[in-house]
C-alpha cells in the first residue's frame, strides 16, 4: 500500500514538475536559447495572480482569464523588444539578459511584496482528497494539475503537428534561414513562442501558488526542476516533458520515502544518471543545426 | 516593364565583394539561365534577389517595386520563391509538411499539395517520410514543390542538378516547362551549359561577379559561351 501510494504521489508531483518544464522546453526547442529567468517568471506569474485575486476579487483559477493574455503579451514583448535584438550574436546575450532579469524579478518582488511567504486561496479543493483504498489517499488538486498538464500537452502537440503556424514553429526550429525563404518571419515566430511559453507559465504559476506557499526567491529552485525535466525527457520534445516530469516526481517521492532528506537528492541523481546514459534525453526531438 | 530588373547590383560577404555591378532582366513567364564557373557569383546573385543577402549597391525591382532592402520573408509574400542550393528540407518535418510549409505566404494560385504530387508522382508514397529519408532526387522534388506551394511569380532555382544522377536530372528538368506554363518566371542557376541553353529563353554567363556574356539562348554561340565561362577573353 505504501508503495502504491508513493508511486501515485510521485506521478502527481511529476505533473507539477512537467508543468515547470513545458514552457522552458517550448522556447528552448524553437529558439535554442535558455531562459534562465524561467523559474522567476513562474513566481512572477504567481504574484500577478495574487494581485489579480485581491484587486478583482476573483479566485486564483478564474484569474487565469486575465493572467494568460497578460503573460502572453509580456512574453511577446520581452522577445520582440529585447531578446530579438541579440539574435545575430549567438545564444550568449539571451542567457546573460535572462540571468539579469532573474535578479530584477526577485528583487522587484521583494520590494513589492516583502519576503513573507504568501499563498493563493482557491478554497476547499486545496485540501480535498480521494481515498482509493485503505491507506492510499491522493489529493484532488494534484489530480487536477495532472489533467491540466495533459490537456496542455495534447493541445500543444496538436498545434505543432496540425496547424500551419505550428509547422512554421518547427521549420524555424530546424533552420531559421530557410524558414525565412518560406515567408516565415523568424522574429515574429520567436515572439509568439515566448508569448506561448509565458501563457503556459501563467497556468504553472497559479497551480504552484495554490499547491504551496511561495516567496520572491523560489524561482531558481523551479528553474532547476524545469531543467531536470527537459534533460530527462529530451530537448524540444513535448511528450518528453511528460516523461521527464513523471520520472523526476517518482524519483523524488521514492527517495523521500526511503529517507526524507533524500527527497531532492534522488531526483538529481536520476537526472545525472540519465545524462550519463543518454546525454540527449529519452525522447530527443530537436535536430542539431548545421 | 520586366517582372524582375537588376541594375548595377553589387553584393558580398563582409569585405569580400562577390557581385560587381550586375544588370539583368526577366520578363513575366520567361526562363532565365545563369551559368558560370564556381565562385562566379551565381548563388550570391540569387540570394541577393530573394532577400537572403543585403545588396551593397545597385537596384533590384520586382514588378516595378524596389526590393533590394526587403527581407526574404517579405519577398516570399510578394511572390519570389527560392529553391536553395543543397535543397535544405526541414529535417524534422515530413515530406507533406515540407510542402505545406511552402504555402505559408498564403498566395492563391494553381499549385496545391495534390498538384505537386501530380507533377512529381514518386513523392506520393513518400508523403509521410521525413525529408532526410529521401534520395537526393526526391529531396530536390520536395524542395521544388515546396517553393511552388507559395504560387510564386518568380521562382529562383539554385543548382537543382547538383549531385544527382543524369536520369533524375532529366526528370526534374522535364517539370520546368509545366512550371513556367502556369505563369511562373524562372531564374535558374546551372553549371551544365547544354541544359541551361535548352531550358531557357535568355542566358547570362557570370565571370568573377560580373556579366561576361548574355543573349537569347536559341541564338547563343556555344564557343563564345564556353570562352566566357572560362574567362578566355578576360
UniProtKB/TrEMBL annotation, chain A:
| TM stretches of this protein | 6-29, 64-83, 95-115, 135-160, 189-211, 223-250, 262-281
Q: Single Gene Ontology BP term?
A: amino acid transport
- Can you list the GO cellular component terms from the UniProt entry? plasma membrane
Give its localization.
Answer: Cell membrane
Protein's organism: Celeribacter baekdonensis B30
What UniProt keywords apply to this chain's record, in alphabetical order?
A: Amino-acid transport, Cell membrane, Membrane, Transmembrane, Transmembrane helix, Transport
Look up and give the membrane topology term.
Multi-pass membrane protein
Similarity comment = Belongs to the binding-protein-dependent transport system permease family. LivHM subfamily.
The protein depicted here goes by the name Inner-membrane translocator
Q: Which GO terms describe its molecular function?
A: transmembrane transporter activity
TrEMBL record, chain B:
Entries under PROSITE patterns matching the protein: ABC_TRANSPORTER_1, ABC_TRANSPORTER_2
Database matches in InterPro entries: AAA+_ATPase (IPR003593), ABC_transporter-like_ATP-bd (IPR003439), ABC_transporter-like_CS (IPR017871), BCAA_Transport_ATP-bd_LivF (IPR052156), P-loop_NTPase (IPR027417)
Keyword Membrane assigned to the entry: answer is: no
The transmembrane segments are none
| Keywords linked to the UniProt accession | Amino-acid transport, ATP-binding, Nucleotide-binding, Transport
- List GO molecular-function terms, semicolon-separated: ATP binding; ATP hydrolysis activity; branched-chain amino acid transmembrane transporter activity
Chain ranges of the ABC transporter domain? 4-233
Q: Which GO terms describe its biological process?
A: L-amino acid transport
* SMART domains in the cross-refs: AAA
Q: Which family does it belong to?
A: Belongs to the ABC transporter superfamily.
Spell out the protein name for this chain: High-affinity branched-chain amino acid ABC transporter ATP-binding protein
Its taxonomic placement starts with: Bacteria, Pseudomonadati, Pseudomonadota, Alphaproteobacteria, Rhodobacterales
Amino acid at each position: 500500500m505504501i508503495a502504491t501510494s508513493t508511486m501515485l504521489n510521485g506521478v502527481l508531483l511529476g505533473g507539477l514538475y512537467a508543468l515547470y518544464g513545458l514552457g522552458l522546453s517550448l522556447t528552448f526547442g524553437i529558439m535554442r536559447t535558455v531562459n534562465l529567468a524561467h523559474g522567476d517568471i513562474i513566481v512572477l506569474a504567481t504574484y500577478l495572480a495574487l494581485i489579480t485575486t485581491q484587486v478583482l476579487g476573483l479566485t486564483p483559477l478564474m484569474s487565469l482569464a486575465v493572467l494568460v493574455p497578460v503573460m502572453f503579451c509580456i512574453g511577446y514583448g520581452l522577445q520582440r523588444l529585447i531578446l530579438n535584438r541579440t539574435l545575430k550574436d549567438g545564444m550568449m546575450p539571451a542567457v546573460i539578459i535572462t540571468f539579469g532579469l532573474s535578479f530584477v524579478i526577485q528583487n522587484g518582488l521583494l520590494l513589492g511584496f516583502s519576503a513573507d511567504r504568501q499563498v493563493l486561496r482557491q478554497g476547499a479543493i486545496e485540501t480535498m482528497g480521494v481515498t482509493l483504498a485503505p491507506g492510499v489517499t491522493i489529493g484532488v488538486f494534484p489530480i487536477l494539475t495532472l489533467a491540466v498538464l495533459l490537456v496542455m500537452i495534447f493541445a500543444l502537440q496538436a498545434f505543432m503537428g496540425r496547424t500551419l503556424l505550428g509547422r512554421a514553429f518547427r521549420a524555424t526550429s530546424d533552420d531559421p534561414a530557410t524558414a525565412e525563404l518560406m515567408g516565415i518571419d523568424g522574429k515574429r515566430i520567436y515572439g509568439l513562442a515566448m508569448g506561448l511559453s509565458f501563457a503556459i507559465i501563467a497556468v504553472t504559476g497559479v497551480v504552484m501558488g495554490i499547491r504551496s506557499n511561495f516567496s520572491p526567491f523560489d524561482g531558481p529552485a523551479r528553474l532547476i526542476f524545469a531543467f531536470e525535466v527537459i534533460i530527462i525527457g529530451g530537448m524540444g520534445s513535448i511528450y518528453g516533458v511528460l516523461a521527464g516530469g513523471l520520472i523526476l516526481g517518482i524519483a523524488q517521492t521514492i527517495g523521500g520515502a526511503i529517507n526524507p532528506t533524500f527527497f531532492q537528492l534522488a531526483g538529481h541523481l536520476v537526472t545525472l544518471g540519465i545524462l550519463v546514459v543518454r546525454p540527449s534525453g529519452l525522447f530527443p526531438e530537436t535536430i542539431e543545426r548545421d | 516593364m520586366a517582372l524582375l530588373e537588376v541594375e548595377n547590383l553589387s553584393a558580398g560577404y563582409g569585405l569580400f565583394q562577390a557581385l560587381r555591378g550586375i544588370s539583368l532582366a526577366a520578363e513575366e513567364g520567361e526562363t532565365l539561365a545563369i551559368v558560370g564557373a564556381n565562385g562566379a557569383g551565381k548563388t550570391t546573385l540569387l540570394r541577393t534577389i530573394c532577400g537572403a543577402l543585403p545588396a551593397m549597391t545597385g537596384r533590384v525591382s520586382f514588378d516595378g517595386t524596389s526590393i533590394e532592402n526587403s527581407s526574404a520573408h517579405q519577398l516570399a509574400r510578394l511572390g519570389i520563391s527560392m529553391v536553395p542550393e543543397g535543397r535544405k528540407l526541414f529535417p524534422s518535418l515530413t515530406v507533406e509538411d515540407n510542402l505545406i510549409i511552402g504555402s505559408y505566404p498564403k498566395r492563391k494560385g494553381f499549385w496545391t499539395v495534390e498538384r505537386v504530387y501530380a507533377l512529381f508522382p514518386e513523392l506520393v508514397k513518400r508523403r509521410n517520410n521525413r525529408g532526410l529519408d529521401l534520395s537526393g532526387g526526391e529531396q530536390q522534388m520536395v524542395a521544388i514543390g515546396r517553393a511552388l506551394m507559395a504560387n510564386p511569380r518568380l521562382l529562383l532555382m539554385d543548382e537543382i542538378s547538383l549531385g544527382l544522377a543524369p536520369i533524375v536530372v532529366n526528370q526534374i528538368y522535364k517539370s520546368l516547362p509545366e512550371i513556367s506554363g502556369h505563369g511562373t518566371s524562372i531564374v535558374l542557376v546551372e553549371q551544365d551549359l547544354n541544359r541551361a541553353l535548352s531550358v531557357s529563353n535568355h542566358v547570362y554567363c557570370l565571370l568573377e561577379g560580373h556579366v561576361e556574356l548574355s543573349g537569347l539562348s536559341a541564338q547563343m554561340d556555344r564557343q563564345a559561351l564556353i570562352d566566357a565561362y572560362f574567362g578566355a577573353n578576360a
